[in-house]
Design brief:
This is Sulfotransferase family protein. By secondary structure, the protein is of the alpha/beta class. It has 11 helices and 9 strands. The strands form 3 sheets. A 5-stranded mixed sheet has the order 3-1-2-6-7. Strands 4-5 form a two-stranded antiparallel sheet.
């Protein structure tokens, strides 16, 4: 999910395993922040709204696609631009993707918002999700959590681990920018409501909106999955993230102290 609001100068980036679906559904169906431009997954249709707002996607040159009343030449240009996937709003866009799409000037005017979560907890969630065959593979994979963790924490040519690249890094920082505001998985309702206040947008309140929140399922203490060595490996690899969002391994369900 990516949400752009030109009037409010608002950009929402959907990170992985952080209650992003609950957040996007609320923003789109209950608030003005989701009333301009958005793109989300096809299965969002089950919530009663389309996966994208027609004719309202951003295109190259920092312009939205023209309305039907515009000239045929405008539509031809817009159609050509839409053929390139990097030239339109897509689901799970990173901050750098959006910057390239809308241009530096507009990007600098906006506040960028995303969700974050305790990385030890998020990795357990990611493991269960992929183990169930929902990670894009044709078959559920079979490996221990420790093996999964070892693979996920391996560092690529870009100096970032697979886990960091998947979970948070592309949504938190980029070329000369750092996230402006975060929504905490561990304090979802309050974080979302406070975000609306920041943008002077009214809402019924997340808890009053009857939005399905995945984290309300029976919770398990993620610590049971970790050996001391594995827990330390996550702390070491996510050291930069943890310097910004000071999560504690031994404090499940607790929002972090802020280091930003």
């Amino acid at each position: 999910m990516t949400i752009l609001n030109r009037n409010k100068k608002f950009i929402y980036l959907k990170s992985h395993k952080t209650a992003g679906t609950s957040t996007e559904v609320y923003l789109i169906t209950q608030t003005a922040l989701g009333s301009d431009i958005y793109r989300t997954s096809k299965d969002i249709e089950k919530y009663g709204f389309p996966k994208k707002r027609r004719d309202r996607e951003f295109a190259r040159f920092k312009k939205a696609l023209p309305a039907p009343r515009h000239s045929a030449s405008d539509w031809i240009l817009a159609t050509k631009l839409k053929f390139g996937s990097k030239m339109r709003v897509r689901e799970h866009m990173t901050g750098n993707d959006v910057l390239d799409l809308v241009g530096q000037d507009f990007f600098n005017q906006c506040s960028v918002v995303t969700n974050v979560r305790n990385p030890w907890d998020a990795l357990v969630s990611s493991y269960k999700w992929q183990q169930g065959g929902r990670g894009g593979g044709t078959q559920p994979f079979e490996c221990s959590f420790s093996e999964f963790l070892s693979r996920s924490l391996s560092v690529g040519d870009n100096g970032i681990s697979i886990a960091e690249e998947y979970l948070f890094d592309p949504y938190i920082s980029g070329r000369g920018w750092l996230i402006d505001r975060v929504i905490f998985f561990e304090d979802l309702a309050n974080s979302i409501d406070e975000t609306l206040k920041t943008f002077r947008v009214e809402g019924v309140g997340f808890e009053n909106a009857s939005i399905y929140e995945k984290r309300t399922r029976k919770k398990e203490d993620y610590r049971i999955w970790y050996s001391d060595a594995d827990a330390y490996a996550v702390e070491e690899r996510f050291s930069r993230f943890l310097s910004w969002f000071r999560y504690d391994f031994n404090s499940p369900g607790t929002p972090p102290m802020m280091g930003l």
